[in-house]
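Per reviewer request, we include the raw input and output of the structure prediction for the construct analysed in the revised manuscript.
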Amino acid sequence: MADSSRNLDRLGLDELKTLLVQVLEDNARLKQANEALREEVARLKGLKGKPDIKPSGMEKNAKPRSGKKGGGKTTGRRGSKNDKLAIDDTKILKPDTVPEGSRFKGYEDYVVQDIILRPWTVLYRRQRWETPDGRTIVAEMPDGVSGHFGSGLKRFLLSQYHKCQVTVPRLTGQLHDFGMSISERQVMRLLIKGKGDFLTEASAVLRAGLETAEWITVDDTGARHQARNGYCTHIGNDRFAWFSTTSSKSRLNFLELLRAGDEGYEINDAALDYMRDHGLPKMLVEQLAGHETRVLADREAWKAHLANLGITKLKVHPDPVRIASEGALWGRITALGLLDGTVIVSDGAGQFRVGDHALCWVHGERLVHKLEGFCERQRKAVERIRHRIWWLYADIKDYCRDPTPKRKGQLRRRFDSIFTTETGFVTLDRLLTRLHKRRQEMLAVLERPEIPLHTNGSENDIRCQVTKRKISGGTRSDEGRDCRDAFLSLMKTCAKLDLSFWNYLGARLSHQDAAAIPYLPDLIRERATA
């Protein structure tokens, strides 16, 4: 024992850390072996063994190591739900008989919630007058009345279709059951026609979000449009969500979306830096930088500009037209003041790796989780690495709550230690090396502790699009596609801003007695500065 102590005294700090990791791994193996022996003993005794439950994901396994349960939230006694209800009607109930001499002691309240759904048809009898000079004067319709269907019906249809995912045939059948006279074609018109103000507000939501965001998470999923496969891209954070369905999922397409409705291209310092970083030949960069035309209005003008410079005729790799177009789009985004200091957190897909980029830890660890070993030694190597990643991940979450320079350096060294480990499992070692090359993206949170470590927000938001795809299939018209994306964006943004989507629809449709809802982009900017 004395010899062992003297040997430990001679070890350096790094050697002691390596020894500690080895001891922890040996301890984990002993615990696993002990658990296996317990299960075997239970089996021999005829007892029920441990249930076979799959391990949860990395986010659930990596529990915080400090602070209160549930992220520091305090639990207390819940108040009465009835305090939040608005009483619409009050009825006084009296006993059938009261013995003589009884004294009145007030009331015992009993609240019943109900809903009234019934058609409401209004006949407007508009007075007509003929003036002495032969003109006809007809009374104007009230504000908010447009067409033969009222704002209450439009509000109900939009809420049911977009939030409750009810299909048009079922909506029509439901209205028929209520006694209304309306066709599927009319229901579809009410859902997509004349929604320009909603589309404009949804586009403004994206611009306000990108102007004020410290970080955004992004993701995409499949979407059908006009009987062809496409892609729906999600962009958002804790204050807004925005969706757009396109036929491509390229980086060029992603940069076009990040312009937030603008269609221009611009050659500036940010654009030229992008082109250089992505391998555009120096001669072409200088040609673009030296031309007097620096701002192009739209895609057609940009294509004509490239053709005049002779760039479209070049057949080399990488494609100079693509790189120049991406650079001009990035230059336009910068000129518009969007994504200034914003970190883009993604699952690592190539199209999202622009600007300040961070990699989702859950997707990075998932590559290790999906790796299958061919023998027990390889499987144990995978489990040891996953355990160390979870441990580091939990400590990084703690660091985000209380960042210090000392802990930052320790976490960087632990990251290097894990992702440069040689396990003897060649496939695993190559994967660790590949992840280590993305060290800056995975450890971006050490410099920006406010950004999330994962893209769970985007994955949760985009599920509404997946559900819509499964229930309703695809869209047929561009107008229908744009309305679907816009209303999903507005609905999710309302939820993030703690607003009722039902009240939002009522306010925008000028429904009587509807509560006023501020312009959503203004709320996003207000929350960003709060």
